[in-house]
Amino acid sequence: MAPVKISHVVSFSSQDPRYPVQNLLNPDNPRRPWLSCPQDKSGQLKVELQLERAVPIGYIDVGNCGCAFLQIDVGRSSWPLDRAFVTLLPATILMSLTDSKQGKNHSRVRMFKDGKEGKSRKDGGGLYEKQSCSTKEGCECY
Known about the structure:
There is one protein chain. By secondary structure, this protein is mainly β. The chain has one helix at 97-102; strands at 6-12, 34-35, 44-51, 59-65, 69-75, 86-93, 107-113, 128-134, 140-141. The strands form 3 sheets. The protein has a 5-stranded antiparallel β-sheet with strand order 1-3-8-5-6, with no helix packed on it. A two-stranded antiparallel ribbon has the order 2-9. A two-stranded antiparallel sheet has the order 4-7.
C-alpha cells in the first residue's frame, strides 16, 4: 500500500519558529525536522495530524532527531469528541540511555510494522494520528 499523505496539523504542543511543525507536511524534504521551542523545557512534544483519508495502517516510518521515546495513538474524525484515541504503538524507546547521554545516534529512521511493535488497525486505521515524543532535553521529529 502506498503511503498516505498527512493533510494537515490539527494541534501541536510546541515548535521552534525556524523548524515549525509544518515541516512534517513536506514529504519532499524529509530532512527538515520539527523542533520544540528552545524555551520549552517540558521534555515532551505532541502533535495531532489528520491523514487525507481513513486507511488501514500496516506500517509507520518515523524519522527521529533526539527523542528518547515515541507513542502513537489513532482515532477517527467520526468518533465523538469525548472518545479517547486508541494506542497503535505503545511508548517505544527510540534512543538508548547511553546514546541520549552521549548525544550519539540521535538521527535515524525507525520502521514499525503491523503486528510487530503495536496493535493492528485493520478496521480502517485512523483518520487522526497523535504522536507523543519525550526526552530529558529537546524533542525533534521529521
